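User: For documentation purposes, I need each entry recorded in a consistent format: the amino acid sequence on its own, followed directly by the corresponding structure tokens. There are two entries in this batch. Please keep commentary to a minimum and don't merge the entries.

Assistant: Recorded as requested. Entry 1:
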Amino acid sequence: MKRASIHRAGNKNTVTAAFDELDFEYATSIAEKAMRSMAEQRVPPTPNNFHVWFNYTLGEPPILKRAIDILIGNKRKFDAHTNREIYESYIGTKASDEAVAYDVSQQLHSVMASAKQFLTTAIADNRTQMAAINDVTERTEAGVDPKLLIQNLMGELAKATTRATKLEVSFVEKSRELATIRDSLVKSEERAKTDTLTGLPNRRALEEFFRKAQLAAMEQDDPLSVLLMDIDHFKRFNDEFGHGVGDQVLRLMAKVLRDGVRDIDLPARYGGEELIVILPNAGLATAATIAERIRRSVAECHISRRSTGEALPGITISIGVGQFQGGESMADLIERCDRALYLAKKTGRNRVVTETDLEAESEQQATG
């Protein structure tokens, strides 16, 4: 049985309607399950929300399903702010990218059409100039007054120079347009790889960076480690002080991460209140040291409500640390870090747990 797929028409997201009988039944069942899940979580059935929850019910992409499962597990309310953030983080940027791509395509079409016209004009001008010079040559051979011929030749050269100058100006203008288009593409690519709330790289940038780091680690036999961290009791900040404070905490965390890692590392927002750091050329011990430094820096931070100056509770984080094993997928490595993170939460929070600690706990449980 084929699964339902998502396609886009123009700049709008829409669920594919072209199913055969079995596909239609399957898609209908997915839609019904999505609507039930939305009702259970009291999510308004808007087109954007339905798009998110239809994909969630399909389980694609897995990162979206995991993020929503975490929110449900934390009993997070799916209010307008949360729903908008989920859509923008996992769905909306794609529509934005397509809109930019469409605009760029139209701009390039216009520039190429102009360039074609310029070249056509230049070729025609060259032919006219060559014909004029040939005419002067023929008249010279016929014994026409040289002064008159020189005047005619200079006139034709002047016309050619004027036409060439106009073409040059037009080409310079179109070159500027191409430079603008190039800058637009660069900025669009940056936006597509940046989390709008924290300014950190997002999952797309994370996956691209990890693939390169993974290949380098295997080719050069270098270590590669990952830190997966979660803000302790983050739900409390949102519930007691509002999402504005929660957002402030996430931005603060982003700053601590940027200040606490090396230039070669990649800190990123993984989803919700989870953050991640990819550490090339770092073994488990080095990664644990960096993680501990980040944990201490966060614990030393103090935040206050911007509107009143009221001091707010301190922030702590739990961190799971794992080292890449040759050939494994990013999902497998992060899953191991996630288990270490869970152990950190289970054993009191505000601590760093490595995959070695996981092995020690397993042995202890086996012997106990």
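Entry 2:
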Amino acid sequence: MFIAILEDDPEVGAVMEKWLQDAGHNVAVFATGAPLLAYKSLREIDIFLLDWVVPGMTGFDVLKLFKTQLHIVAPVLFLTIRDAEIDVVSALDAGADDYLVKPIRHQELLARINAVTRRVQDASIGISEEVFGAFRFDPSGRQAYCGDVIVELTSIEFELALFLFKNAGKLISREVIANVVWGRPVSELSRTIDTHVSRIRKKLNLAPENGYRLQPVYNAGYRLEQVLAGPFHAA
């Protein structure tokens, strides 16, 4: 994988760079956001690791530009010393696929990278489109559609939405979602799963008028149910 790191602490950046290079990845390290955004090979990056607090343009600012203007589709892992739920949710709402709370741990970082690697490799084998009524998912292009309307999903949102559609009608526990989609125990994810489910429901407009309803099941998990088809409208 080709991995870009936004990290202003040279020691931390050097340590992460060595960890990733030892694991076989190519790495580019940036101390501030501007040179990262101007990097000539920006769209060749497979994964971005963005520190939140860096001089000038913050990692949060870079993330928002990725998603709102540059339309970067590569996964973004957010690095932060902030472990408050509101900060984590803010990063996820801005388009981050996952987050790591500092100090970064060697094996945890590699495990998150490996989980992303598996998703990218699965997408590269030319799987045909998955169609569920008016909803379509293109695993190779990592693109979702409601009718003919493109629905902008992050990489992890795409994985979660496709997993739920493939298991429509079934009660899926939060533990299963955590392990299948994130590759991590549910205890580590706090309300991350709930936040992502809420965003998917809103972005895909999963409501009866669109043929599907996504419901929480108290103390159990979630169920995506197919209902009577109606006129389809993307959110």
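Summary note for entry 2:
The chain has a mean pLDDT of 86.
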